[in-house]
Amino acid sequence: MTIKLHNTLTQQKDVFVPINPDHITMYVCGPTVYNFVHIGNARPVVIFDVLYRLLSRHFPKVTYARNITDVDDKINKAAAENNESIKQLSSRFADAFHEDMAQLHTLTPDLEPRATDNIDAMIETIQALIEKGHAYEAEEHVLFQVSTDPNYGQLSNRNLDDMIAGKRVEVEPYKRAPGDFVLWKPSTDDLPGWDSPWGRGRPGWHIECSAMINKHLGKTIDIHCGGQDLIFPHHENEIAQGTCCHDQGSEKFVNYWMHNGYITMDGEKMAKSVGNFFTVRELLEKFPGEVLRFALLTAHYRSPLDWSEDTLIQAKASLDRLYGALRNAPPSTTDISHPKIDQVEVHLKDDLATPQALSVLHALAGDINKSDGEEKAQLQLALRQAGDHLGLLSSNSDDWFKWQADSSNNEGLSDGDIDALIEERLQARTDKNFARSDEIRDELKEQGIILEDSKDGTRWTRG
RNA sequence: GUACCGAUGCCUGAGUGGUCUAAAGGGGUGGAUUGCAAAUCCAUUGUUCGUCAGUUCGAAUCUGACUCGGUACUCCA
């Protein structure tokens, strides 16, 4: 019954014990919206969507928050280049992000706070940190003084002495110690800024999450998720801010920290800065979103997942098999119980073991293909429901097999063209004119259309 | 320098002391089915888990060394 989650704080799988079983709180670090997201950015969104679905099945209320960072130096730069406001730029890419994530069948978070809507909360948090002696002003900046937090380094399992200060980036001269990080920084007139007790400026990167969690979810939340690359410094700094701003500095900020592994390309981390990435948008031109989602779930979320064309081809083939088992399934929304649905749940409750959960889906598909009648119908319902636990198999199976890349341009045969040719072929077959019949089938195959004859007629698939 | 992760069969990818003669899918091969196909079903393929030592009655799983690759200490999911 218990749910186990890998907690970066303890570096092991822990039994999930909620703060309040009647209301779970989870927060996922969302995108900085200055361009289209790549498939690596999509991984946490899909993975923690599975977590959200799981928690929602086991607890009466789950509040899932995912922020949108809409002020940041990369945004400022991009907006300036386009000669538009950061609001215009960030809104456009936030919309694009929502569209892309919808294609991946992810559920909408309950809250989606934006940084620029929460500047006041950030200023309050910074003020509290100054009052409690954890932050100081220097040259119009406000900095967090890391040495005042004895627990600093707890999440990333490192101590300041072991880190080589300024190894890769120059240490600013106004810092008291190299590890101190910016809470607030001044803006010149040409940059976005907000009035504050320290002059016109803008927030540092880490403060928004701490402040928004505090404001929207509470002092201590159950689960905080994100990519591994956020462990340090982002999440380490969030903990420092999020605990030190409270009266009881020892109050926990987050009970369970979950981090997903990287998507790699030829073994190397996919990253915008490296340039080795595919945007979700371009991948969606070639494959249905569900294929991307499935591919992201084939590996365990903490393992690296190497991305290639073959990854998608194999994911598509697997989904074809599952949807094949659902063909001619009776429409129904009835909740049913089946041991294999329970098996899926058992795997998901074990730190989101999605690969094992997917293997159960395949077992169900095999059962379906070997059964018929009422038993088959029941098994199909079970597969639909098991798939729903993973956010999969919600499409109509006929639509699935007729999915067409680039449906906007009219290259290739329309559904009507195909049906007409099948009609002609049927007549040829009735006449035992197999030469003509096979000719039509070969023509269609040239166009990527695969035919399947059965006693109930001929159906087709875009391969 | 410090901290950390990975290396599994043709491919993707589970498995962290015995039920592993390694899940599941993809791929290959043979058979059933089909006018022929496709889909489906059945069978089959891979004694093998980076290397070398060790612990153990027993290791893919634990320990040590090594090799290779990657990550963090910059922005990053």
Strand order of the largest sheet: 4-3-9-10
CATH-assigned fold name of the largest domain: Rossmann fold
N-to-C CA distance = 41 Å
State the helix count: 15
Secondary-structure element pattern, one letter each: EEEHEHHHEEEEHEHEEEHHEHHHHHHHEE
The counted number of beta strands is 15
At the first level of CATH, what is the class of the largest domain? Alpha Beta
What class, by secondary structure content?
alpha/beta
Largest β sheet strand count, sense and barrel closure: 4 strands, parallel
Helix content: 40-55%
Mean pLDDT: 92
Query: Can you tell me the CATH superfamily of the largest domain?
Result: HUPs
pLDDT < 50 stretches = none
What radius of gyration results from the CA coordinates? 26 Å
Number of domains: 3
Beta-strand content: 5-15%
* Second-tier CATH architecture of the largest domain: 3-Layer(aba) Sandwich
Q: What's the overall geometry?
A: elongated
Write structural notes for this entry.
The protein is α/β, with parallel strands linked by helices and 463 residues long. The chain folds into 3 domains: 4-260, HUPs (Rossmann fold), CATH 3.40.50; 265-401, Four Helix Bundle (Hemerythrin (Met), subunit A) (Up-down Bundle), CATH 1.20.120; 415-462. 42% of the residues lie in helices and 15% in strands. The protein contains 15 helices and 15 strands. It has helices at 39-58, 73-82, 86-103, 119-131, 207-216, 231-244, 280-284, 289-297, 309-326, 339-349, 354-370, 373-389, 397-401, 415-430, 434-446; strands at 4-7, 12-15, 24-28, 62-66, 135-138, 141-144, 181-186, 201-203, 221-227, 254-260, 263-265, 268-269, 305-306, 449-454, 457-462. The protein has a 4-stranded parallel beta sheet, with helices on one face. It has a 4-stranded antiparallel beta sheet with strand order 5-6-7-8, covered by helices on one side. A 3-stranded mixed beta sheet has the order 12-11-13, covered by helices on one side. It is elongated and about 90 Å long. The mean pLDDT is 92. The structure holds one RNA strand of 77 nucleotides.
